[in-house]
Amino acid sequence: MTRTKSLGALLALGALVVLADSCSDSTAPGSNAATITANSSTTLSAAPGAQVVELPSVIVRDQAGQAVAGARVNFAVATGGGSVTGSNATTDASGIATVGSWTLGTTTGSNTLVATTGNLPPVTFTANGADPCALLTPHQLGTTQAGQLSPQDCRLSDGTFVDFYSVTLPTSGTYIFNQTSATFDTYLALLTSTGAVVGINDDVGNDTTKSMLKVIVPAGDFVLAANSFSPNATGNYSIASAASSAEVTACEDVFVLRGITTQQSLSSTDCALNGVFGDQYLIVLTVGQPVTVTMASTDVDSYLEIHLEGDNTILASNDNSDATTKNASVTFTPTTTAFYVITARTQTAGSTGGYTLTIQ
């Protein structure tokens, strides 16, 4: 897995706006086409110049509250300078009429769209044309979600476009995130809710159409950034997420945060150097902020090392935290902000068994 591209503006992202959905479902008594009410959310959000994802729709009912089919509904932009397609719609058998598309105006601010039929009071839809770098779309853990990179998205300093998704992780543990596209080289990042980078990935092996992150993190709110490797790349993609019980193995990249305790094991499928098995964990450390790592085991004689990613010079290590256990503990204060590698291993070739890793 590669992490060769800087995330640029991701590191400086200071404010994230969560999209708010509000639904209206009102009915009123009344002959034919007696009421017109919202069928979709009336409060929406999109980047200036971009289309709203959820299309505004209304439902028309008669005086008895029954759906009216074949009623003509007009959708028209009221404020914001945007545009619509399919403005003259007709209700279906369920009494529902939907606009073809709604593109917001090119400037930041409020946009409104009104839907009318006959002389009935109009239904108003409001969309906030917000800074695309401050738009945060909810993502439900365990689902696959479609997205699209476009010129209306947030643009990073390297010329790439990015979409941000909020995701809540309910418990401390291991999670896997994927981004897949048939049209561009994907690039995926996970950040904390304050914008700090947890992990980044470009390709899964030699597959440039897929990016994957495996992380071990505390419970909390996080931000998934769906990006491309190359500037100006646009097109459809999907993101997916899942909790995982899989242990660290086979020299894979696993990103971690402070505040975790995880049960792992050394086995013959792990990274091996001179016959010694070990697991590696990637963590972003900030200059001047110490980190304490503990490896506890009753099976193996624990040994810990810390070094910069891409530089095998050992910066800190520990074999025995005390004289009576097989545990190891190391405290390290970085002199530069970067990705560091924590290696949990033994000093004995062929030694295998379970251990507990804690990072504080």
Give the helix/strand layout.
Layout: H1 9-12, E1 17-18, E2 35-38, E3 43-46, E4 57-61, E5 72-79, E6 83-85, E7 88-90, E8 96-98, E9 101-103, E10 109-116, E11 123-129, E12 135-138, E13 144-149, E14 154-155, E15 161-169, E16 173-180, E17 186-192, E18 197-201, E19 210-217, E20 220-228, E21 235-244, E22 255-256, E23 260-266, E24 271-273, E25 276-285, E26 291-296, E27 303-308, E28 316-318, E29 328-332, E30 338-345, E31 353-359
Parallel strand pairs: 1-12, 3-11, 12-15, 19-22
Antiparallel strand pairs: 2-4, 4-8, 5-7, 5-10, 6-9, 10-11, 13-21, 14-15, 15-20, 16-19, 16-21, 17-18, 17-20, 23-31, 24-25, 25-30, 26-29, 26-31, 27-28, 27-30
Structure explained in plain terms:
- The chain has 360 residues and is mainly beta.
- Helices cover 1% and strands 49% of the residues.
- It is built from 1 helix and 31 strands.
- The chain has one helix at 9-12, and strands at 17-18, 35-38, 43-46, 57-61, 72-79, 83-85, 88-90, 96-98, 101-103, 109-116, 123-129, 135-138, 144-149, 154-155, 161-169, 173-180, 186-192, 197-201, 210-217, 220-228, 235-244, 255-256, 260-266, 271-273, 276-285, 291-296, 303-308, 316-318, 328-332, 338-345, 353-359.
- Strands 1, 12, 14, 15, 17, 18 and 20 form a 7-stranded mixed beta sheet that branches. A 5-stranded mixed beta sheet has the order 3-11-10-5-7, with no helix packed on it.
- A hairpin with a 6-residue loop joins β10 (109-116) and β11.
- The two termini are 26 Å apart.
- Mean pLDDT is 90; it is low at 6-31.
